[in-house]
Backbone:
C-alpha cells in the first residue's frame, strides 16, 4: 500500500521601494512517498479430520509429505515449494501446542493465529497460510490426498503465491482418539529484502523546511515593516513638499524631509536584510529539492522492490 504525502510551501514576498511595488514569488512543491506493505493471510481452511483406523502409519516423514505436495503442484505446472526452517519451527510449535492444549483449530485458545505464530517465530512474510490435519493416515500420500480432497486445503497446496513451506507431523494422544497423527503445513512467501528509504534524509528535509519557514516569516516581517516605513516616509516628504509650496521656506519643510529620509533609510535597511535572508532561503530550497529528489528515488526503488 503506497502512501503519498504532499508538502506544499508557498511564500509571497512583497517588496516596496520608494513607492514602487514589485512582487517576488518563491514556491516549493514536492511530493513524498512512503510505502508500507500489508501482510496477507490467505489460506485458513476448515478442520480436516482424517480416518480413525488401526492402519495408521508408524511414521509420517515431512520430506515425503513435501514430495507429494510438490508432485501435485507440478501436475498444475506450479513451482515446487522449498523448505524454510523457520516455517518448520512454526509448524512444530503449532503441533506441540495442539497436543499440549488439546485443540484442533487455526487460532489457539490464547488467540494466537497462524500469522501471529510465523511472525513470532521470525518469518517476515508477505503472504502466509496454514493446513492442519488430524487422523490415522496410512502414509504420506494418504495425508496429502486428504488435503487435496478438501477444496480449501487444496487451494493452499496449489496457491501460486507461496514459495516456501514448513511441515511437521506428530503422533500423540488427542482427546478420545488415543494415539493419532497431527500434521501441519505452514505456507509462506517472504517479504522481499528491500532497502528502506533513508529516514535521516527525510528528517533533514523536514528540519530544513522548518528553518525555511522561519526565514520566510522573518522575510515577510521585514518587507511588511519596510512597506510601513516607506508609507510613512512618503507622508512626511509629502507634508514637507506641501509646506515648502505654501511658504517657500526650506527651514520649515526640512524637518519633514529629514524624517522622511530617515524612515526611507530604515525601510531600505529592512529590505536589504530581507534580500540577504531571501538568498539564504533560495539556497536552502535548492538543498531541499536535491535531497527530496534523492529521497524520492529511494522510495521508488523500495516501492518497486516490495511489489515483487
Residues:
Amino acid at each position: 500500500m503506497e502512501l503519498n504525502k504532499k508538502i506544499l510551501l508557498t511564500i509571497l514576498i512583497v517588496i516596496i521601494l520608494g513607492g514602487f511595488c514589485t512582487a517576488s514569488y518563491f514556491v516549493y512543491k514536492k511530493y513524498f512517498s512512503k510505502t508500507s506493505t500489508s501482510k496477507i493471510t490467505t489460506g485458513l481452511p476448515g478442520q480436516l479430520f482424517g480416518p480413525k483406523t488401526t492402519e495408521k502409519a508408524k511414521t509420517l516423514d515431512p520430506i515425503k509429505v513435501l514430495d507429494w505436495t510438490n508432485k501435485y503442484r507440478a501436475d498444475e505446472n506450479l513451482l515446487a515449494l522449498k523448505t524454510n526452517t523457520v516455517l518448520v519451527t512454526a509448524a512444530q510449535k503449532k503441533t506441540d501446542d495442539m497436543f499440549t492444549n488439546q485443540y484442533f483449530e487455526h487460532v489457539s485458545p490464547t488467540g494466537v493465529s497462524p500469522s501471529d505464530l510465523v511472525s513470532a517465530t521470525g518469518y517476515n512474510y508477505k503472504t502466509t497460510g496454514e493446513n492442519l490435519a488430524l487422523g490415522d493416515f496410512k502414509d504420506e500420500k494418504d495425508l496429502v490426498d486428504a488435503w487435496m480432497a478438501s477444496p480449501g486445503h487444496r487451494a493452499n497446496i496449489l496457491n501460486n503465491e507461496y514459495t516456501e513451506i514448513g511441515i511437521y507431523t506428530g503422533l500423540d494422544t488427542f482427546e478420545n482418539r488415543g494415539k493419532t497423527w497431527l500434521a501441519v503445513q505452514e505456507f509462506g512467501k517472504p517479504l522481499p529484502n528491500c532497502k528502506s528509504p533513508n529516514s535521516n534524509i527525510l528528517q533533514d528535509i523536514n528540519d530544513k523546511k522548518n528553518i525555511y519557514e522561519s526565514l520566510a516569516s522573518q522575510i515577510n516581517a521585514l518587507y511588511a515593516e519596510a512597506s510601513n516605513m516607506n508609507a510613512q516616509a512618503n507622508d512626511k516628504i509629502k507634508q514637507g513638499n506641501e509646506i515648502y509650496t505654501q511658504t517657500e521656506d526650506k527651514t520649515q519643510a526640512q524637518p519633514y524631509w529629514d524624517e522622511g529620509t530617515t524612515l526611507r533609510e530604515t525601510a531600505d535597511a529592512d529590505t536589504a536584510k530581507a534580500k540577504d535572508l531571501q538568498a539564504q532561503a533560495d539556497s536552502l530550497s535548492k538543498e531541499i529539492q536535491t535531497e527530496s529528489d534523492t529521497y524520492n528515488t529511494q522510495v521508488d526503488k523500495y516501492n518497486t522492490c516490495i511489489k515483487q
Observations:
- The helical segments are 62-75, 85-101, 114-121, 140-148, 151-157, 199-247, 250-306.
- The chain has two domains: 48-190, 199-307.
- The chain has seven helices and seven strands.
- The CA atoms of residues 117 and 200 lie 33 Å apart.
